[in-house]
Amino acid sequence: LLGIVLCLQLYAQEQNVVQKADTKWFPEAKLGLFLHYGLYAIPAGVWKGKEYKGVGEWIQERAKIPISEYEQLATQFNPQQFDANEWVLFAKDCGFKYIVITTKHHDGFAMYKSDVSKFNIVDATPFKRDIIRELADACKKHGMKLGFYYSQSRDWHEADAEGNLWDFKGYQKNFQKYLDEKCKPQLQELLTRYGDVALIWFDGGRKMSDNESTQLVNWVHKFQPNCLTSSRIGNGRGDYETLSDNKLPTTTTDQAYEALFTHNFRSWGYSKTETKLRTPQELMEVLLNTISKGANLLLNIGPKPEGVFQEESIRDFRIIGKWINANAEAIYGSKGSPFPEMPWGYITSKPGALYLHVTKWPEDQKLSLPLNGRSSSAKFLVSGKKIKSKIAGENLLLSLPAKQPDEMCTVIKVSY
Ligand SMILES: C[C@@H]1O[C@@H](Oc2ccc([N+](=O)[O-])cc2)[C@@H](O)[C@H](O)[C@@H]1O
User: Fold this and answer.
1) Which residues share a beta bridge with 414?
2) Residues 158-206: pLDDT tens digits?
3) Has residue 293 got a pLDDT over 60?
4) CA proximity to 116, closest of 127, 103, 102, 135
5) What whole-number percentage of the chain has pLDDT above 90?
6) CB of 244 closer than 6 A to ligand 1?
7) Which residue's CA is the closest to the ligand 1 atom numbered 14?
8) What secondary structure does DSSP assign to 61-105, as a single string?
9) Is 227 in the pocket of ligand 1 (CB under 6 A)?
10) Sequence-distant (≥ 6) Cβ neighbours of residue 135 within 8 angstroms
11) Which UniProt keywords apply (predicted)?
């Protein structure tokens, strides 16, 4: 009897073993473009004339919209201006090395041709085109890594999934039934029909049991062993850490982890009720703060229902993109700062080099760095122009010109 019990435990343990994927590419890539796109772009925070503040992609939950009514949005979804190559080339020009798009958000609508649920973009809309197919092809063509956001536990279209308490009041949910009949079959579709998938961006919701988290991570790695899974799968079973929404990292680490921010302060999906956008300077602060802690940054846009990005997002992302491309050496493959926060800006590091990202030009045109007397040289990264420097005790003292070469942020490379 003891033997049998031991075997069962082993088997269970076996079940709970997660094969981890190789995260090497992730910290190298540093910058990802997050795209929250779906039916919720149509109401954009407004339902039957009533404005709902906050996250636009939650409109069905906020307005307690019955499935029968929400499904009608699919009959209006027709993004005729959608051009996958345009989206991917824009992302590339702005310095993003991977894209993560919502394949299914909490409303349960599949933005790809799914044989598991008719509630999908090909079968339920006049558009009838598979946006994920076209994006996967364009990413492959332009060498852009592609990841899929998938809401594994919240699905307001399914009685047995998490979240819809207005259509299914008092209904006894069988969550494993939802995992077996929709979640896992759809993940299989996404991991077997769209080429290499860089990562599955699982998202919060129902507290997953360790068995459920392990089940889904093993399921993903069964079809694509190198596909990363995000930590919102729960129970520490993900391949890399994601921070809470719009939260800056507090510690510097070499672990693979990611901060996520929206261009629109308050909504991930396109919104007409939340219109305040982060300025290019605010986006820069988020970018520099994040990479100076060794983390990746996933920056979000909510595309408009007609299939294009807001003008303001295109304008602001191109502004920071220009800076990112000019200072690429100080970003991709860099690690966080070995020093505490600096009053004048941020630091990223590489072997034998420190990159000083100066956003607040020192009035006294002096900048000191505790380099313990190590001999070093300093130059402006973009122009290559040398900077006068001398060792003063433990510190390296740099003498800067009066005018800051790049108002947005000037990078000084210190080689030691
Ligand atoms: C990226 C965002 O993720 C979730 O929102 C969350 C999930 C988890 C936290 N959290 O852990 O703090 C906060 C918001 C979604 O509900 C939201 O619609 C969006 O997709």
Assistant:
1) 354, 378
2) 999 999 999 999 999 999 999 999 999 999 999 999 999 999 999 976 6
3) yes
4) 103
5) 88
6) yes
7) 245
8) HHTT--HHHHTHHHHH---TT--HHHHHHHHHHTT-SEEEEEEE-
9) no
10) 84, 87, 88, 99, 101, 146
11) Glycosidase, Hydrolase, Signal
Q: Which residues contact 315 (CB under 8 A, 6 or more apart)?
A: none
Residue 9 CA: distances (Å) to CA of 5, 13, 16, 270: 6, 6, 10, 48
> What is this structure's pTM?
0.95
Nearest-CA residue for atom 19 of ligand 1 = 268
Residue 127: exposure state from Cβ atoms within 10 A (0-12, 13-18, ≥19): middle
Q: Nearest C-alpha to atom 1 of ligand 1 is from which residue?
A: 245
The whole-angstrom distance between residue 254's C-alpha and the CA centroid of its chain comes to 18
pLDDT digits (tens, 9 = 90+) for 360-379: 999 999 999 988 777 889 99
Beta-carbon contacts of 311 under 8 Å, excluding residues fewer than 6 positions away, are: none
Structure tokens at 243: 């921070």
Q: How far apart are CA 27 and CA 397, in angstroms?
A: 31
* Cβ-contact 278, 286 below 8 angstroms: yes
